[in-house]
Amino acid sequence: MIAPGPEFLVLTGFLGSGKTTLLRDFLTRPEAADTAIIVNEVGEIGLDGALLREVGGDVAMTTLANGCICCQMGSDLTTTVEALLGTERPGDIPLARIVLETSGLSKPGPILRQLASLAQHRMRVSVLATYDPTRPPEIRDFEEAAAQWAGAHRIVVTKGDMVSPKRFAAASGEIGEINPLAEIVAEASREPAVSAAFAPPRPGPVTMPVPIAGKTRPHERLTSLLLRQEDVVAYDDLAAWLDNLAGFLGERLLRIKGLVRVRESEEPILVQSVGTLFSQPRLYRGGMPGDGGFLVVIARDAEAGEIGRVEPSLPFSLSRAPGRGGRSLRAEAV
Ligand SMILES: Nc1nc2c(ncn2[C@@H]2O[C@H](COP(=O)(O)OP(=O)(O)OP(=O)(O)O)[C@@H](O)[C@H]2O)c(=O)[nH]1
């Protein structure tokens, strides 16, 4: 009998819903020892991979940074998985699982289709999605979010420490309306939530997600901008800019993350918001990526030019594509 291959977990969930945090927590556990991680970063400069490396120890980690893998016809994903499976392992201990952390805008359906071409490896593929109870249920109006939850076998309610028990409990009902087939993990305490999220999947066939009717253009209303830092900034200026950006964009702001060099510290500051809710900025101990400081801003129904006009003016360059633009503030789509 051919031995089954590793478990393959597609970790999906809307922008900022807690995928990286959940995976980081799992990686600190002994049962994560024989895990390999693939991170799909939409931006050129990956932060999720860096945050996972901070805690990941010897775990094999690969970053796929050529854009959203669900939008690619022929992707690097299958090649990467083949390479992982073909790599000699210390002590010949086989990989127990591969976790693919997708970008917050990936849809699982096309990813599962790509993985289907690896059937000979007999991997047990399943989709694990995160559900952020701090965001309103209207997030499901985004076709990406709807596709993620619709395609999930297991959905984990995250951020149990950030909402009331009532709100936390209501999330399960909302999930049930979107995907009545998914197993729901709703544990407000972190430890049991992480255990249940990464527990072996219950046996059963992997099904393709139900296609969501509607727009055909992917990510139609979303703008994803890369702001590259050209000079060090004062922390107060950065804080004022983030405040003003959040005030200006309001509900249209979906996600900010990045590492910024500030005058006050040798180490960069990790900046993160989900919607307009900012996490406490903290020093990032993993070192500055080679390309220097950056911020990724993901917004709905917003133009790069509008974001470029937010005060105070900071030494970040925005460029939409090489060769276009030519203004001091250029926008680069990520
Ligand atoms: N308090 C609290 N904050 C959380 C929790 N999970 C995530 N966060 C915060 O929410 C923000 C987004 O979390 P991430 O884990 O980066 O979310 P993500 O889904 O990986 O984000 P993208 O990769 O951008 O889609 C970060 O600032 C986290 O620190 C949680 O359980 N509790």
UniProtKB/TrEMBL annotation:
GO terms for cellular component: cytoplasm. Residues 9-185 form the CobW/HypB/UreG nucleotide-binding domain. Residues 223-307 form the CobW C-terminal domain. It holds the Pfam family cobW. It catalyses: GTP + H2O = GDP + phosphate + H(+). One of its GO terms (molecular function) is nucleotide binding. The keyword Secreted does not apply. Keywords: Chaperone, Hydrolase, Nucleotide-binding. Belongs to the SIMIBI class G3E GTPase family. ZNG1 subfamily. Zinc chaperone that directly transfers zinc cofactor to target proteins, thereby activating them. Zinc is transferred from the CXCC motif in the GTPase domain to the zinc binding site in target proteins in a process requiring GTP hydrolysis. This is G3E family GTPase.
